Amino acid sequence: MADFQSHIEEFKKENVDIVALSVDPLDKARETVEDFILDADKKVVDASYSIGPIGRIVAGDALSHIQFFKKRKAQQS
User: Fold this and answer.
1) SS3 35
2) Which of 29, 47, 57, 70 is buried deepest, with most CB atoms within 10 A?
3) pLDDT-derived band at 13, boundaries 50, 70, 90
4) Model pTM score
5) Which residues, at least 6 apart from 14, have a Cβ–Cβ distance to it below 8 Å?
6) In 3D, which of 74, 77, 37, 35 has the Cα closest to residue 56?
7) What does the alpha-carbon distance between residue 55 and residue 76 come to, in Å, rounded to a whole number?
8) Residue range 29-38, pLDDT digits in tens
């Protein structure tokens, strides 16, 4: 989450909130993060799940993904 926290201003500029969920105890939850991307209707449009450190999405990739979705939506309008 520190990576996402360090990019929080960029997410705010994209009008994006970051949510992390875990069923683990608090100490383990801090180690495991599950990230969701929601649309304006609060529907999950993309998700990333990992049971370990490999495969977790980083903040830069999440921002790029969000910008891609926004650009694609704008082109469809």
Assistant:
1) strand
2) 57
3) very high
4) 0.58
5) 63, 66, 67, 70
6) 35
7) 30
8) 655 444 465 6
26, pLDDT greater than 70: yes
Contact 59, 2 (CB under 8 A): no
Three-class secondary structure of residue 50 per DSSP: coil
Burial class of residue 57 in the structure, from the number of CB atoms within 10 Å of its CB (0-12 exposed, 13-18 middle, 19+ buried): buried
Element (H, E) at 73: helix 59-76
Nearest to 20 by CA among 30, 31, 32, 35: 35
Q: Is the dihedral of CA 28, 48, 7, 15 positive or negative?
A: negative
- Mind giving me the DSSP string for 1-27? -HHHHHTHHHHHHTT----B--SS-HH
Contact indicator for 22, 29 with CB cutoff of 8 Å: yes
Phi/psi at 70 (5° precision)? -65, -45
